[in-house]
Amino acid sequence: MKLQDERNWIFRLYTAGEAPNSLRAIANLAAIGQEYLQSRYKVEIVDILADPLHALNDGILVTPTLVRIAPPPIRKILGNLNDREKVLLALGLAGGLS
Length: 98
Fold this sequence. Notes:
Blueprint: E1 9-15, H1 20-37, E2 41-47, H2 52-57, E3 65-70, E4 75-78, H3 84-91
């Protein structure tokens, strides 16, 4: 499936090193990005074990946490992103799929 509009998407994914749920979230987000957004997205991965102040300054207390930075509004999803339907809906991608 492909998104109909041509907006660029920016995500920040907060992880905890190589914890299983963090690795699953990275893989699940990569699969969603490839299938629905092709080359129109960027992901910044913030490992809170390596950079705890970044997460603290952003108010992140749980990992993995995905933040959709752009397009606005900002949206946050907690967990490993396994439930694709709920993730697409939460990110605002479900309504624009063709």
